[in-house]
Amino acid sequence: MIKTHLYLLFIMLAMLNSCTAQDVVIVNNSVSxxxxxxxxxxxxxxVKSANVLQDYITRVSGAQLQIVKEGKGKFGGPCIxxxxxxxxxxxxxxxxxxxxxxxxxxxxxxxxxAGSGKGLIYGVYCLLENFMMCKKLAGEPAFVPSxxxxxxxxxxxxLHKPEFxxxxxxxxxxxxxxxxxxxxxxxxxxxxxIWGHSFxxxxxxxxxxxxxxxxxxxxxxxxxxxxxxxxxxxxxxLIVGELKKRIVLNPDAMYWSISPNDDNGYCECDKCRAVDxxxxxxxxxxxxxxxxxxxxxxxxxxxxxxxxxxxxxPTSLKPAKNVYVFLSDIEAYRDKPLEYDGSAxxxxxxxxxxxxxxxxxxxxxxxxxxxNYLAPFPNFQTLGPNMQFLRENGVKGIFAQGSGDTYGEWAxxxxxxxxxxxxxxxxxxxxxxxxxxxDYYGEAGEYLLQYxxxxxxxxxxxxxxxxxxGNPVNEWNAYLSxxxxxxxxxxLDKAEGMVENSPLYQQRVMRARLPLEYTVLQxxxxxxxxxxxxxxxxKAGDYSVKPKFAEKVSKFVANCKKAGVTxxxxxxxxxxxxxxxxxxxxxxxxxxxxxxGAAVTLQYPFAADYPAKGNKTLTDGNPGYNDFxxxxxxxxxxxxxxxxxxGKSLQISKVSMHxxxxxxxxxxxxxxxxxxxxxxxxxxSNAQDIVxxxxxxxxxVSAKGYKxxxxxxxxxxxYIRVNATNLNALPxxxxxxxxxxxxxxxxxxxx
Length: 751
Known about the structure:
The chain is of the alpha/beta class. About 35% of the residues lie in helices and about 20% in strands.
């Protein structure tokens, strides 16, 4: 309550001063009478802050202010006091909160002081941005205006403390140290000794599993290297020993992660099961273990993950005081705010439950589409409400995961806007975006803002769910339809036209255009031989790649490299690999088929989450390549029994097809494939069987081809039935309680 009254007092003083104070002129006609004063024995941060301030004042006005230390002789005239000088106690008696800062004009002097941490440098950059109009919009050189005069309000009183103790927006700009300090952001590499999913970092399976399988989770009666057995005393001792070594090497780390691997398969041994049962969640054994580690290092802070199988809070245990819980909202869609969307119901429940047992709650948030970093992802209308909701529910820190080290859609804007929301969750998002567009894109900003607004309008009108694991191909008949893409492209054309004489703005607009170009290319795979597709048919009935299409791909890849795109998704293709994939598509061309456009009847329904083009997916002439989310018809826990009606009896010599291999998404090869022929669609004969390749442990993605023939003979048939059996159960190495095996077929070709 005392702190609240103190802040209210500062606000009241500011209002009072506004009626009487006169402006303070720091520089006039590129000349200044001011000096920058630092403590007699300044810290490194105080020296740095003074140097930054001196540098930018010179760059703005041409005046160079001298930096002097208190107690080193007398100096007259007005001063700018930076750090814990004698003026600090005058303007703010007592201790300031960590990372807070104060800017105050006192008479003709300016005082900049702060609490612990980086508050002082934050205060300097606040002064530069808010009162000298300097801006650091991206991981690029700051914008510095030129003015021979620098004036500050005589009533200047800016007292700020961070809304969150941990603030990270994971985009390429995070590699710019000045950008982080200017925008009050942090970087996990600077804060954590061990970050994220850490079990395998602390007790690596490659080192221990063969010789000590007992260190690892007991899953379905067998030891698996998916997670650790947290009841094993040797595991505890190994982790304590490993932490001791790492802490010596990195004594300044603020946090150490003790967290499950990015997998399920948690331990079901008697001891772990008993703790989990008592707590109503597998987080029970996790929190018990992390608390024990935290007790061994009481002067260190530890983080763990409420994610996947540990999302639900324990009912009988509480995290220790030096344990911070990272709760993930990974399952929520992004078209509506977390506070209201139905998909976030579990997250809201978890947030409340964890909040009831700990005040040290962080959230791992997601603001991009993981599966396609460049894909249009119009979620800007949720960013402000989500930040407010999290802050109002006691969240102390946020990891806003974007595209990481690679360039992603609107990377500059997303990072900048998130930083402003960290600073003030109630900031006017539309105002920030409009200002950014003008400042960063120049005259092109007007049309880019229209583009962003139109895309968001189309998405909301479509009532489609915005999924971080989505795909722009799947929006081909919604907000990313060909007509909508044309409309959006027109706005980008206008934006380009406005900056055609500025190489800098041209590059920025080029980056803004990459998501639309990516969408067009990806959807072309979906359309294939159809309109908007890759191939065009000539008068002879043969297909070839559309004119200039290969050139379009090459230009896109080249622009990706210029923009800093290093991968197209989390762990996905690099630009050169994307080019190679396209080269393979061009080379393969179009496989002729007697079944092209034929009607397909299915005995069992396909997986509704991946509809592709429905039944006709199997005869549209378009292969699925290596992405299961489009052009593949998936069957979840049931066989694929597909009957193709050729329309009339034809001479059949060969039937071929692809099945996808993608164990990470629980897609496996069929156990057996049977192809049968029929004249009437009732009586089938001439059965040919194929036993698929084994489903041994692996995680590579590939499309595997299968074919049957009739010893070189042609057999008359109108109907073709393909029966591909699904696995009875998941392989042990991919077993999950809530998953079933899935098979995926992209096309059935008939020759």
